[in-house]
Design goal:
Layout lengths: L3 E4 L3 H13 L9 E6 L4 H17 L4 E6 H5 L1 H5 L6 E2 L8 H5 L26 E5 L1 E2 L10 H5 L3 E2 L2 H13 L4 E5 L15 H11 L5 E4 L9 H9 L6 E7 L3 H7 L5 H14 L4 E8 L6 H14 L1 E8 L16 H26 L3 E6 L4 E4 L4 E3 L7 E9 L4 E3 L1
Parallel strand pairs: 1-2, 2-3, 3-4, 5-8, 8-9, 10-11, 11-12, 15-17
Antiparallel strand pairs: 6-7, 13-14, 13-16, 14-15, 16-17
Helix pairs in contact: 7-8, 8-9, 12-13
């Protein structure tokens, strides 16, 4: 009997939900099971998860609803009190079949063991596979509760990652995306080299892999091997999503980030010089406590200063128990207004990028539904079989997606 999963949050959660389809399978004769894999990064993510739980309870009264994920770790009492929830499973054990026979309470994640590779060879029906290589975080950003939900940083051993990527390619995978909570922290707990060395090991050890990507990275933590790989390895895709959060140095300090504005700009300039055509996305927060209009303007103009193309904009969301929650807040209406302005700047940056692509030839990995992605991760509408990598000329765009001739 298959398990139905409802997933919120990051790519890591998406991959973990795929693993749980097998690990959480109920025994013969048991009630069907719906697993809600929660996120805690914003208050809205938690609200949406609880809304989904109530909806599932109405639509599937026969099902056992089990809640796991970062939300269940951070707001355990809130989820445990919901009458629709049959039980909770700790984030640190949710991928282990034994945890679904003898569920452990949330809180176990903080004592999580060494990180093991996932057993999946890809996401059903997808040409792109996500491979978690790192979990947890050792940092203490003042706005973030994720370390409470994921525990300390742990890495999957290099050889195990290479072996899993090889299996994915054997099963027809064309592109692999390395994911993690703090991806650039990879390897510190293993004393075997960092993310750059892992990238080199994958590309040399799996010659049949067509494309390798990185999920969100912390640019200040990018090691020299990684920068060199971006310059030298054509199969390492030239798209980086950066965890920047703000463009003003005082706000970055109050966030307890590890970089300054100048560091972010310098990193983008360096990568663009070494890898012409590189494209950057970024996470940015609008309305962080104490943020003035002038400080917010520094975040707005960071989009142009770094040459950002794809923005993930987050209105600041206060999380109880974090240092930022005790700082003087920005008026909620102003937070929403600043987030909207930042999204407008992002939309304009994306349109400039799309305009510049018209008339160019690009290699596109075709996916389901008549779409695909360029090497720089820009979506394209085209006619091709999923998994095919095709050279196309870009004829135009609709404001969000390129259109192949």
């Amino acid at each position: 009997m298959d398990v139905e999963t409802v997933t919120f949050g990051c790519r890591l959660n998406i991959v973990e939900s795929e693993v749980m389809r097998q690990a959480a399978r109920p025994e013969a004769g048991a009630r069907p099971r719906v697993v809600v894999n929660t996120c805690a990064v914003t208050a809205e993510a938690g609200r949406q998860a609880r809304k989904a739980i109530r909806r599932v309870a109405r639509e599937r009264p026969d099902a056992e609803i089990v809640v796991t994920g970062c939300g269940a770790e951070v707001e355990t009492d809130l989820y445990a009190a919901m009458p629709e929830v049959a039980r909770l499973v700790g984030n640190g054990d949710k991928l282990a079949p034994r945890a679904w026979r003898e569920p452990t309470p949330p809180g176990a994640v903080m004592a999580a063991r060494a990180l093991a590779p996932t057993a999946i060879t890809g996401l059903a029906g997808h040409t792109r596979a996500f491979v978690p290589v790192q979990n947890g975080c050792d940092h203490a950003c003042t706005f973030c509760v994720i370390p409470f939900g994921r525990g300390r940083s742990r890495s999957v051993p290099e050889a195990a990652v290479v072996e899993q990527v090889a299996r994915i390619v054997e099963h027809g995978g064309r592109e692999v995306v390395l994911t993690g909570v703090d991806l650039t922290a990879y390897g510190r707990d293993l004393a075997q080299g960092g993310l750059g060395r892992l990238v080199r090991a994958i590309l040399s050890g799996v010659p049949g892999l067509a494309r390798l990507r990185l999920s969100s990275i912390d640019s200040i933590e990018a090691d020299a091997d990684l920068v060199a790989a971006l310059a030298e390895e054509a199969r390492l895709m030239p798209h980086l999503h950066l965890s920047l959060q703000a463009g003003d140095d005082l706000i970055l300090k109050r966030m307890k980030r590890r970089h300054a504005r100048a560091d972010a700009i310098r990193f983008c300039e360096t990568i663009r010089r070494l890898r012409p055509g590189a494209v950057f996305g970024a996470d940015l927060i609008a309305g962080f406590p104490t943020e003035t209009e002038a400080q917010f303007a520094r975040t707005l103009d960071l989009v142009e200063a770094c040459g950002l193309t794809h923005l993930h904009v987050f209105p600041y969301s206060s999380r109880p128990g974090t240092p930022a929650a005790r700082m003087p807040p920005v008026d909620p209406g102003l937070v929403r207004e600043r987030a909207a302005r930042l999204r407008d700047v992002g939309a304009a940056a994306l349109r400039r990028h799309l305009d510049a692509e018209v008339g160019e030839s690009r290699l596109v990995l075709a996916e389901r539904g008549g779409t695909g992605r360029t090497e720089a991760f820009t979506p394209v509408r085209l006619t091709a079989e999923p998994g095919e990598i095709r050279a196309v000329r870009i004829a135009g765009h609709d404001g969000r997606t390129l259109i192949a001739a």
